[in-house]
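Hi team,

As requested, here is the filled-out complex form for the glutamine run. I kept the field names the same as last time so the parser does not choke. Let me know if anything looks off before we queue the next batch.

— J.
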Amino acid sequence: MKYILVTGGVISGIGKGVIASSIGTLLKSYALRVTAIKIDPYINIDAGTFSPYEHGEVYVLDDGGEVDLDLGNYERFLDVTLHKDNNITSGKIYQHVIERERRGDYLGKTVQIVPHLTNAVQDWVERVAAVPVDNTNKEPEVCVIELGGTIGDIEGMPFVEAFRQFIRRVGGHNFCNVHVSLVPHPKTTGELKTKPTQVSVRELNRLGLIPDLIICRSERQINEEVREKISNFCNVLPEHVICIHDRSSIYRVPLALEEQGLAKYFAERLRIQLPTIHTRKLMSKWRDLADRHDNMTKEVNIALVGKYTRLQDSYASVVKALQHSALHIHHRLNLTYIDAESLEPESKVKSPIQYYEAWQELCKAEGVIVPGGFGPRGVDGMVLAIEWARVNKKPFLGVCLGMQCAVIEFARNVLNWTDANSTEVDDKTSRPVIIDMPEHHGGDMGGTMRVGLRTTNFKSGHPSTLKLLYGDVASVDERHRHRYEVNPDFVADFSAKGLHFVGQDIEGKRMEVMELEDQPYFVGVQYHPEYLSRPLKPSPPYLGLLLATSNKLTQYLARGCRLTPRNRSDNESSDDDDTDDFNVIYQSVNLVANGSAGADKPLVEEK
Ligand code: GLN
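And here is what came back:
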């Protein structure tokens, strides 16, 4: 196993996760099996209890792990399925060590950060790195580890110390440290400044790690002089100072690493023998994506009506899924975030400018998405936006809370059940069209959520656009994270008026997919399809929204879910070509060096 530890300097939020994922992508393009571990040094056990305003969206894994959104980067870039243990937090490590202490595993010794906690980190990393994450079901060969935060953070210290020791455990030729640092360009000086990087590398050295590569994040390209300076002060060769300045899209980052010879560097440094004959199909696909992204002329205008619009990271996977679909149909995504509360009548009095602006933005949209969320705030605004989409026959996709709001809207405005609601919003409603799941309702405050991968069966014999978009399959597996669901008692009333529940869980009890008749695209899903969207395999419900918004859906379905040649890129022979088959191309890769349900989380509502 080869370990690449990615640390950060100066400030967070400079794209360390994207760089770490891109390193993985680059190595994967050489047919290496790559896995990833994200370390978040906070005390929380996982991201499940975070408000979306805290760290952005909570990312959900197949196994129900509620993790940091960076795991999404790894899954999307590497097209792998990670597990909850691929996200390490201080909370998890401490919990693990304390449980062992209680069991008496430490034989009466004083339990300390060094060696007990640091050993636990190393054991965890070794164990998780070996778990297969792709459909080869084989042990990965390379593990990219991203240490969250920046070097010098108090919380991160035990982890840095663990990796200092880890080098000896696994051998220097199996471990390298990539330090991602900011090289700012203050307007007042007019030149790139290397001092913050020098200071962070000095701190890293002080803690016992010596970076093998320094990746400089900067607005513009760094020149030779700056590179020399960093090299001199930070004790790395100039060719090991890599510049990743801002690019037109994240799809350019793996390409930029490749251009700067990083594959060769890792091969030498970690003694990996790269295949000699290679077509590098994966890299050319990334190049195609990047070029496509830069050369789109048409736009598609989508409004995202949600409650966490103040922080755009709250909808990270939703936005990525929209982008994947837009890219697939060669349109630039023009996404407008609309705060649901601003659409409500009360806001007309409280903040009229916001109210009118929000409505103006909504009226400009060609398609509407209402994503997931928790708690009552903003629900009425979402319902109003959905009513607007339905009445004006605008394509609409409701995800989780978005689907629940669409059901409420239909009940109120079509069935005339004026006080219809979700019991999450109003538990006294006479028409509880959305209810909390009985078996998850333990009778006390600590209800549980239905999280992780679950199967949805499409109703046989019932027409469904979404079923066709998925390839006319009988069932789909998607990730969930919810506590409430459509009340089965009212399903017949909805159906009689044209709102059909065409997909259900395997027991046929839970309504998973909703479609409304006589609309260009009016779809709701109880699950979160955004978590399984990939740049090269866009999520079908999202693709449907984008196709319908750009008036291509009918044609696409008529062509058996294929784009017309005009809408395909020149070097794309067929849409099926997008499957990842590079594992077949490279039969063997030789590593020279030796050794070759989280379902019961209390839900914290956003404030
Ligand atoms: N709050 C709703 C529920 O718990 C929707 C959840 C979501 O959108 N993820 O069912």
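Two things worth flagging: Residues 442-447, 569-607 have pLDDT under 50 and may be disordered. The CA atoms of residues 305 and 338 lie 5 Å apart.

Thanks,
J.
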